[in-house]
Design a protein that fits this description.
Layout (H helix, E strand, L loop, with lengths): L4 H19 L8 H6 L6 H27 L6 H4 L1 H19 L6 H7 L1 H34 L3 H47 L6 H10 L17 H18 L1 H7 L5 H35 L14 H11 L5 H37 L5 H25 L6 H12 L3 H10 L5 H24 L17 H34 L1 H5 L1
Length: 512
């Protein structure tokens, strides 16, 4: 297809404007603190919008409508867990990080359990961000492929390097302010698309809801107790753990809390960014359901190749390219790019921050000057972007990007939430107790992640994990926390008994 001139102007104006706007912050990044924390003076509303834009990404913009189109609203239950995770973040984690005053989210773990804990958590974070970057770059390529027929791999490479440029030059200020602008574009685009879909039905809006209801598209999933299927409860529990990890210990978010001027502003930004996601994600699910009704009522509008299994993520981009009025297609494509660019830029900046603080300054050059630190930040951003591009290329052809991302996030998160919870809520846990918990947790994660791939038939099925893949982070987290906690309790009781026995055997103690 050929993008009309008006849509091309709208799209390229918005995208190039964002890139130039981000690059304009280059002259304000003279120190590593300005690059990573923005000087700690950014307004709460902008930080909150940045948190929202980071959380949405093109995974939500394309993955959620694709999921709703193919199935139902079961994945929306994930959003319902956000308020609970945010409350815990505001109550416990934000005061903790701002009290410590270190830009790295994992500095606390070193204070609590030693250097190994910081390395473990930061390494898991870096792996997670690489996979996140790859998934987003892959999704960004879909609409341009639908519009122009351009090679998906070429689009991934060009988009990745384009985002790297303004992220490297602009630092965290560029990331947050461009996120704020991109978040507004994203919401506007989604609202316009949902309205157009609603009033484009041949028999009016009522037909949309009737077709969706007849096909059970509004279902939130089974309320059963199965742990092997994506039930309401499995998604809710998964959402609680992954959102607590996102808002409570993820460097992307912790770094933003540190850019505000006070604890109160940090908490306001967390509330604003997290709660805004709930209605916007609902809007995305509605778009997916509306697309199903739209193409059910007018099946001749959808090509045969998009009716096959595994094409759900491509239906929304196709509608954007063919079903919108002049000018709106350019806005929607720009919205998708805005969502993806904000998240990729955030991942690049936060990963570079971790590499500099948790590795370079910690092990290679403790007395590094500003020029050396800035050089490390630039090179780390570049390397992260290159690896993200390579991962995106490897994801080409994956059936559901949303499912793939959720599974990969569970694996590479490594259950590190359990280590944070163990350190914060169990004050008597020793380094050895925590390390034992992590080893057990990693074994559980490896078993749940890999056993479905290797134990597929015959007697080997008895070794296969019977649990849904989304529960990997849940069991990994709980294993780390419970093993570490129970070992510390057992040892403390044993030591207490030993001391009591020694006191009893002491003649002076018996005499008393």
């Amino acid at each position: 297809m050929k993008l009309p001139l008006l849509d091309s102007i709208v799209f390229f104006t918005l995208i190039l404007g964002n890139i130039i706007f981000g690059i304009s912050f280059f002259f304000r990044n003279r120190t590593s603190d300005q690059f990573t924390a923005g000087g700690g003076k950014l307004p709460a509303w902008a930080v909150g919008m940045s948190i929202f834009a980071t959380f949405v990404s093109s995974i939500s913009f394309l993955g959620l409508p694709g999921k709703a189109y193919a199935t139902n609203w079961n994945a929306f239950v994930f959003s319902l867990s956000i308020p609970f995770a945010t409350i815990m973040t505001i109550r416990f984690f934000i005061p903790l990080y701002r009290g410590i005053g270190n830009i790295s989210a994992y500095y606390y773990l070193e204070q609590r359990f030693g250097a190994w804990a910081r390395i473990y958590a930061s390494a898991c974070y870096i792996l997670t961000q690489l996979m996140r970057t790859g998934a987003i770059l892959m999704l960004l390529a879909l609409p341009l492929n639908a519009l122009f027929g351009w090679n998906i791999k070429t689009i991934i490479i060009l988009t990745g390097f384009m985002v790297m440029i303004y992220t490297m030059l602009g630092g965290i200020k560029a990331v947050i302010w461009t996120d704020a602008v991109q978040g507004i574009i994203l919401i506007a685009g989604a609202l316009i698309c949902s309205v157009i879909l609603t009033f484009s039905m041949p028999e009016g809006p009522g037909q949309l809801f009737r077709i969706a209801a007849e096909n059970n598209k509004f279902s939130l999933g089974s309320m059963g107790s199965s742990l092997s299927q994506s039930t309401f409860w499995v998604v809710l529990i998964y959402g609680l753990f992954i959102n607590l990890q996102n808002y409570g210990i993820d460097q992307n978010y912790i770094q933003r809390y540190m850019t505000t001027g006070s604890d109160r502003e940090a908490k306001v930004s967390a509330w604003f960014g997290s709660l805004l996601y709930i209605p916007v994600s609902l809007l995305f699910f509605y778009i997916g359901t509306a697309l199903f009704s739209y193409y059910t009522a007018m099946p001749e509008l959808l090509p045969d190749e998009l009716r096959t299994a595994g094409s759900a993520d491509k239906v929304f981009p196709y509608f954007i390219a063919t079903g919108l009025p002049a000018g709106m297609t350019g806005l929607l494509i720009a919205s998708i790019f805005a969502a993806g660019m904000s998240t990729v830029s955030t991942s690049l900046n936060s990963t570079a921050t971790i590499i500099m603080n948790d590795y370079y300054r910690r092990y290679f050059n403790k007395n590094a000057g500003e020029k050396q630190c800035m050089r490390v930040l630039y090179s780390s951003s570049l390397l992260t972007g290159v690896f993200g591009i390579l991962i995106a290329l490897a994801l080409v052809g994956v059936e559901s990007i949303l499912d793939a991302w959720w599974s990969l996030a569970s694996i590479f998160s490594g259950g590190m939430l359990g280590l944070f919870l163990l350190g914060y809520f169990s004050r008597n846990v020793r380094k050895a107790d925590a390390l034992t918990g992590v080893i057990c947790g990693v074994l559980v994660i490896v078993w749940m992640s890999l056993s479905p791939l290797y134990f597929t038939e015959g007697r080997s099925l008895s070794f296969r994990s019977p649990f849904h893949a989304n529960l990997t982070i849940v069991f990994g987290t709980m294993t780390i926390f419970l093993v570490g906690f129970l070992i510390s309790r057992f040892i403390n009781i044993k030591l207490s008994c030993r001391n009591s026995t020694k006191d009893y055997e002491n003649p002076e103690h018996r005499e008393k």
